[in-house]
Amino acid sequence: MSTAPIITDGAWGTELQARGLAAGECPDAWNLSRPEAVSEVAAAYADAGSRVVLTNTFRANRIALEGYGLAGQVEAINRAGVELSRRGAAGRAKVFASIGPSGKMIATGDVTEDSLREAFAEQARALAAAGADALVVETMSDVDEAAIAVEAARATGLPVVGCMVYDTGRNKDRTMMGTTPEQAAARLAAAGASVIGANCGCGIEGYVAIAARLRAATALPIWIKANAGLPELVEGRVTYRMTPGEFAAHARKMEGVAYLGGCCGTNPRFIRALAESCA
Amino acid sequence: MPELRELYDAILNGDHKTSAAVTREAIDAGIEPMELVSGYMVPAMDEVGKRFECEDYFIPELLLSARAMKAALELLRPLLAASGAKSAGRVVIGTVKGDLHDIGKNIVGAMLEGGGFEVIDLGADVAPQKFIAAIKERNPQLICLSALLTVTMPSMKTTIEAFKEAGVRDGVKVIVGGAPVTAEFAREIGADGFGENATAAVALARQLLQAA
Q1: pLDDT, tens digit, 9 for 90 and up, residues B96-126
Q2: CB-CB: which of B61, B106, B188 is closest to A233?
């Protein structure tokens, strides 16, 4: 690797489940009900070598929280999310706050661009007011929604990372809506992103090529948080078979990535492996 | 006399205004509804499916074509019903308990409607009891279960088990789909099939209901 990447963090949902989060429960609500557990996750990643930790605010936009009956708590959940990651990081890592998708689709008429704009602006303002160092628009399948979120995030004045999921098509190199890495890089940069990325997806193997294409498509720094392969069902349990060592070996093949971490199937052991082999 | 090829093109190109307009003209000209459906509309959706498989089309194109198909079908439905023609089948669809994601489920629902199925959408986070009540009250032939999260996949299994306990499993076909779902998982939990994507789900639904 040309220059050592900054190591970010890994999955949050599974870490919270390990601390007792039930299936179907809203993880973001734990920022208010189980703050010590949330702060522990950030601390575990900082211990493992993360120099950037995210926040437990992936679903904390009004539209997604509505499904859990929590639309009235946008401000409180986001503020607590930044504070808890800050506490867990304890000066060892910067806090980049997570903004995930609304869960509704513009193309099916389930949500309007205006309501998305309002929801992301409200979340971004709350995260910025709580002192986040940057905002990360992540796990987006629709570049139209991602561009709206990036614009809303950029309006706070903070740097913004804009990431899409590439999991569709013969080569798993397009978003669900058919957008290529090159198209997404251009759209997200135009919307005001300072870092362009890819996260989640079908496993880190395929993201080596995605990282190279993003790098060729933009002069902006690249952010990659891939999954640890695809989940398999082992004796009725959903399992990711990839080991931290294998994950780090794939990550080493990525050239010129500025920020490197993991998504589904990763945990602090994967981050430690990344920190030891890539930094 | 309307140019019926325009109906095929309108559906293929996702132009719902033209597809409705040509359908209206055709109805006024006394053309048999079934001729429109089987001669132009279904072939157009088949071509949409092929283009999706070949990656010429993605989800936005699928949704637009399904909307154009639905616009034409809605005009034809009263005539089809009056002539005794049956829908392709009645389907109950929902995202399983514990999972709030409904994008995938909505896309499959739209494509099934475009494929001529009658779709009853129970929404997201649907408890097994709610599916069972819908089976008893609405008498569907097919149940479609969706899940996006790996952690809610086991909920598909408990839903199918609840169908068995309630004695409704044998009366319906059950298919499953969603990002983490695989054919192997579908077999393991006792589903009748697995749809890799929305067009595969429609093909599977047709196949299962024809065999039934």
Answers
A1: 998 988 889 999 998 998 888 999 999 999 9
A2: B188
B65 lies in the same domain as B147: no
Chain A residues close to B63, C-beta within 8 Å: 107-108
Among B82, B102, B122, which residue terminates a domain? Answer: B82
Nearest chain B residue to A172 by CA distance is: B55
Task: Reduce the secondary structure of chain A to three states and give it as a string.
Answer: CCCCCEECCCCCHHHHHHCCCCCCCCHHHHHHHCHHHHHHHHHHHHHHCCCEECCCCCCCCHHHHHCCCCHHHHHHHHHHHHHHHHHHHCCCCEEEEEECCCCCCCCCCCCCHHHHHHHHHHHHHHHHHCCCCEEEEEEECCHHHHHHHHHHHHCCCCCEEEEECCCECCCCCECCCCCCHHHHHHHHHHHCCCEEEEEECCCHHHHHHHHHHHHHHCCCCEEEEECCCCCEEECCEEECCCCHHHHHHHHHCCCCCCEEEECCCCCHHHHHHHHHHHC
Domain ranges of chain A: 6-278
CATH of domain A6-278: 3.20.20.330
Please report the ipTM that was assigned to this predicted complex: 0.78
Quick check: A24 and B98 CB within 8 A? Answer: yes
Structural domain boundaries enclosing B184: 90-211
Q: Does A109 touch chain B (CB under 8 A)?
A: no
On whether both B128 and B191 belong to a single domain, the answer is yes
Look up the pTM and report it: 0.89
